[in-house]
Amino acid sequence: MAAVGGCLGSNDGEENGEENGGENGGENGGENGGENGGENGGENGEENGEENGEENGEENGEENGGENTVIEDEFSGTGPGTIDQLDVVEGFSALQVDPVEGLDLDVIDADGVSQQTLGADLQIYQSFVPLFVQGEHEIDVQADEGVEWTITAIQAPAAEATTVDLPMTVEGTEPDYVGPIDFSEGVSVSIDHGGEGEFFMKRFDLDGSYGDQLIHGTGSYATETDVDYEGMGWILITASEEYEVGLEAGGN
User: Fold this and answer.
1) In this predicted model, what pLDDT tens digit does every residue of 207-238 receive, in sequence order?
2) Cβ atoms within 10 Å, residue 45
3) Rounded to a whole number, what is the distance in angstroms from the first to the last CA of the chain?
């Protein structure tokens, strides 16, 4: 999912709604297994020297062997239910939801107040909906009896996050996100979208708050745009058909 070296309704009313290995695993699982791991993974380590980490040092599902942590929590159920506690950290956060039809989600804070309602957003964001809350919340899942659902919370914390290297290319046929990106020197974006469906990209600030919409269109098209922003942040890509996005430093 994530193209991070490091996938939109909201409460702020933006158009169409608002918008990776890790610690304990060590880079590439620690050099040849690392200390206390022993050769080729050694005692108390996994194969190839991984200790408490996934292959290539990934923690909680990060891809591309970067230095940034990605936290993934999966929840599943049948019919109406509640995800009792989800601690949303500062950074980019989203919910990957299956199915997108027949579900309504309500994100409720510790005081019992609804902070974000995800109904139509599931289809607008094509199953990958950004969260615009932080702190401890529960999620009220409204579904018909017998409907099986899976919700995966994906979080890329802003704390100590390292920016991705540009240029880079992101390809796919489903929602994705990229970052963090340093936009301060300008970033140019090229888009090549195929198919007849909807495609849009939105920028988010480093803390996960909504920034702005970069591009929006339907059907096959190719275009370019520049990101006008002086800080660091993330890009959310929403699509259901083939696309290629190029990101390059410079622009404006």
Assistant:
1) 999 999 999 999 999 999 999 899 999 999 99
2) 23
3) 29
pTM of the model: 0.73
Token duo for residue 87: 């601690």
Compute φ and ψ for 39, nearest 5 degrees: -60, 135
Report residue 25 as tokens: 């695993």
Does the structure show a pLDDT above 70 at 38? no
Give the C-alpha distances (Å, rounded to integers) separating 37 from 23, 29, 43, 59, 102: 15, 10, 5, 17, 48
Residue type, 205: D
Check pLDDT > 60 for residue 189.
yes
CA distance linking residue 238 with residue 165, whole number of Å = 22
Nearest to 25 by CA among 1, 61, 78: 61
Question: What are the structural domains of the chain?
Answer: 27-57 (no CATH), 71-157 (2.60.120.380), 168-249 (2.60.120.380)
Round to whole Å and give the CA distance between 46 and 35. 13
Residue 4 has pLDDT above 60, yes or no: no
